[in-house]
Amino acid sequence: GDSVTQMEGPVTLSEEAFLTINCTYTATGYPSLFWYVQYPGEGLQLLLKATKADDKGSNKGFEATYRKETTSFHLEKGSVQVSDSAVYFCALSAGGTSYGKLTFGQGTILTVHP
Amino acid sequence: DGGITQSPKYLFRKEGQNVTLSCEQNLNHDAMYWYRQDPGQGLRLIYYSQIVNDFQKGDIAEGYSVSREKKESFPLTVTSAQKNPTAFYLCASSIDGDRTGYTFGSGTRLTVV
Fold it and tell me: Which residues in A lie closer than 8 A to residue B48 (C-beta atoms)?
């Protein structure tokens, strides 16, 4: 079945450091890929998405590129801020009989210190 | 503004009781979903509905029930058959999950006392 694997966390960085959170996936066909962010005590917010190979999603300084050859969708940001501290989820939607259903990774906790 | 409203934010249940979590959306989305979130386990799909009066079981439906009598509403009942109901419950909706992703509510934290 479909699955998403995120890098083990938690991740702790200093402000202005470079961020990478790895995400790899297993799916049949051509899934759409997403990154969501969850702040403490809240629901998830869509951060960025990519719907086909080589697409780059970007938002609020975060970027991720859909790499079909390596089945990856790694999240990057060049300079993190304290306000970026949150839990980040990678997810895929495989379409077909799974239409509209998202499969999530386990989440990566990011803490940014001043 | 359009969005998804979940209520209550916190809910306490005694053992053996059924409780119902509310989820209402005014986004005119056809599809709605319920997920359960436990620490370190990500999100697991409980039930989903792609159209009014129709719904399907997700990966962990045992001990839960839903209804979809109106497009705007998708309540989740946690029954006494659910052996470990303490968790954070998230409701979501989408117009086209494959391409646009979901809009999530702010969640309900259920605790068994």
Answer: 100-101
pLDDT digits (tens, 9 = 90+) for A41-99: 889 999 999 999 999 999 999 999 999 999 999 999 999 999 999 999 999 988 666 56
User: Number of H helices and number of E strands within chain B?
Assistant: 1, 11
Alpha helices in B1-113 (DSSP H): 97-100
Alpha carbon of residue A24 to chain centroid: 10
Chain A residues whose beta carbon lies within 8 Å of the beta carbon of residue B3? none
B40–A100 C-beta distance less than 8 A: no
Q: Which of B88, B31, B86, B82 has the alpha carbon at shortest distance from B60?
A: B82
Closest by CA to B67, choosing from B58, B75, B56, is B75
The Cα B92–Cα B94 span in angstroms is 7
Cα dihedral B95, B101, B106, B111 sign: positive
DSSP reduced 3-state for A98: helix
Torsional class of A72: left (φ above 0), alpha (ψ -120 to 50), beta (otherwise): beta
